[in-house]
Design goal:
Blueprint: H1 2-37, H2 39-67, H3 71-76, H4 78-86, H5 93-132, H6 136-171, E1 192-197, H7 210-217, E2 220-221, H8 222-228, E3 235-236, H9 238-257, E4 261-263, E5 268-270, H10 271-277, E6 289-290, E7 295-297, H11 302-307, E8 313-315, E9 321-330, E10 349-359, H12 364-382, E11 386-390, E12 402-410, E13 415-424, H13 428-433, E14 436-438, E15 444-446, E16 448-456, H14 457-467, E17 469-470, E18 473-475, H15 481-484, E19 488-489
Parallel strand pairs: 4-9, 8-14
Antiparallel strand pairs: 1-11, 2-3, 5-7, 6-7, 9-10, 10-16, 11-12, 12-13, 13-16, 14-15, 17-18, 18-19
Length: about 500
């Protein structure tokens, strides 16, 4: 945790710290030059170096502005932000007012700091002129003023750092604004069913839920997972392991055939990556954290794949970028218990294949619909009954602007099981990631990011085991047989 706190501090105030180091460096350089080359020449060289320092200072201040979430939008659209987030059943009035107030204080402090540095530059120039004219006494008086200005700029810089830190922490508490098409609602029951397809099979008498089937055919061992690790970490065996691998290969093949480039990515990410995609601070309690190295086990491949493009400026002709990857995923799922999370319904470690897109803002919603259609084709080939829900404001993820959930129907459990979420984050993640593109006219702007599960394995597997069960065994979907090498589990 100590390392984490250090990292946060560096991330938030590191820019101003670097600026102070440069300031100290140039002040010491001046005194050295004065001793080495004489007062007049020393001041002259100092002024030359101050021009370089001014450019560096400008770039650093620009970076500090960029790491802020889009404060200008909040400042100019206060009521719109409050109204939009009310769709998430959040009253952010006080938080938004605090954000705007902190931003005003930070900006005024920055103006004061800039003015102080500008005055110090003028005095330095005047000192050089006085020394050239032999007016050493007057130069000494101005030198005393520069010392005072140095102390003032130091205090203002520290105040600016504190305000920037406070503002950033407040900004991290604001979720993404829901799109206009997001339904109003508080609970999953208020999600909008927008599409449904597939026939629900009629099972034979004595049909069982998947947690009984895996025991019967000895293909998944939950108890062994408890012995090795704990609840929520199953062990796949024999044909169960092969079916799992077949699903992963099939999903990846479908994605790459659709134009997605495959990536193999780390399963641990640093704090900057988790903040970049919005898992932190929102999901901090749900992520496994290695405090020694300050690394997080990924809850989804979305995190490492999207962070490939952190701090990247793309060219417009590089868009869209389509990525896919398989990873195990790790979630603490604190507070989850009961029959609804039995068996494969809710795990701490599970496999998932992800698709991620980096899009031009004008085309991101068209891309979202394309991702939805892509996932539909997979479920059609698996011949599983499914439906698509447009999530209401109260059920959406923190970073999402619009989300579609896919659910398959488990006949043996007589319930719908979520297997995929496909979301458009608009500029929310890109703003945190500093993921931008340069348009044809040379203007740099934020890209849109999207991602979806294509697909999450546990509940897809549960749906296959339950819906394809027969008195003779579990029939393998035809599209998977070239991957499994067998057509039935018996």
């Amino acid at each position: 945790m100590v390392i984490g706190l250090i990292f946060k501090t560096i991330t938030i105030i590191g820019v101003s710290f670097c600026q102070k180091i440069y300031n100290l460096y140039f002040y010491f350089l001046t005194f050295y030059l004065i001793i080495k080359t004489g007062l007049t020449a020393g001041v002259s060289k100092f002024l030359s170096n101050r021009k370089v320092m001014s450019n560096i200072s400008l770039n650093l201040r620009s970076y500090k502005e960029n790491v802020m979430l889009q404060i200008s939008y909040i400042r100019e659209n206060k009521e719109k932000v409050i109204t939009a987030l009310a769709k998430r059943n959040m009253d952010v009035t006080t938080l938004v007012e605090e954000v705007i107030h902190l931003d005003e204080k930070r900006r005024s402090t920055q103006v004061a700091l800039d003015n102080t540095l500008a005055e110090a530059n003028k005095l330095s120039s005047a000192i050089g002129d006085l020394m050239k004219n032999g007016e050493k006494a007057k130069a000494e008086i101005l030198k005393m003023k520069t010392v005072q200005l140095k102390e003032t700029s130091k205090q203002l810089g520290e105040k600016s750092d504190i305000l920037a830190n406070e503002l950033l922490q407040k900004m991290y508490l604001l979720p993404n604004l829901p799109a206009d098409s997001v339904p109003v609602g508080k609970t999953p029951e208020e999600n909008l069913n927008v599409f449904e397809e597939g026939d629900i099979p009629v099972l034979h008498e004595g049909a069982q839920p998947h947690w009984e089937l895996v025991k019967k055919y000895d293909i998944i061992d939950f108890e062994l997972g408890v012995k090795i690790t704990g609840a929520g970490f199953p062990v796949y065996k024999g044909k169960g392991a092969k079916l799992q691998r077949a699903l992963i290969s099939y999903f990846l093949d479908k994605n790459t055939e659709a134009g997605y480039q495959e990536y193999q990515v780390p399963h641990l990410v640093n704090e900057a990556s988790a903040y970049g995609t919005g898992q932190l601070p929102d999901k901090e309690g749900q992520m496994y954290h290695d405090a020694t190295d300050d690394l997080y086990l990924i809850p989804t491949a979305e995190v490492p794949i999207t962070n490939i493009f952190r701090d990247v400026i793309l060219q417009e002709n590089e868009l869209p970028i389509l990525c896919t990857g398989y990873t195990p995923c790790f979630r603490r799922e604190a507070g989850s218990y009961g029959a609804h999370v039995r068996g494969l319904n809710r795990l701490h470690q599970f496999d998932k294949v992800e698709i991620v897109r980096i899009e031009h803002p004008d085309k991101s919603y068209e891309a979202l619909e394309g991702m939805v259609e892509h996932v539909k084709t997979i479920l059609q080939e698996l011949k599983l009954p499914y439906r698509i829900l447009r999530l209401c404001g109260g059920d959406m993820g923190f970073a999402s602007a619009l989300t579609y959930d896919f659910e398959v129907f488990s006949t043996a459990q007589d319930k719908w099981l979520e297997i995929s979420s496909v979301s458009n984050f608009e500029t929310f993640q890109a703003n945190r990631l500093k993921l931008r593109f340069k348009g044809k006219e040379g203007k740099t702007q934020l890209a849109h990011t999207l991602n979806g599960s294509s697909l999450a394995l546990p509940r897809v597997l549960a749906g296959i085991l339950e819906n394809y069960q027969t008195p003779e065994g579990i029939v393998i979907p035809e599209v998977l047989r070239k991957y499994t090498g067998f057509d039935i589990i018996n």
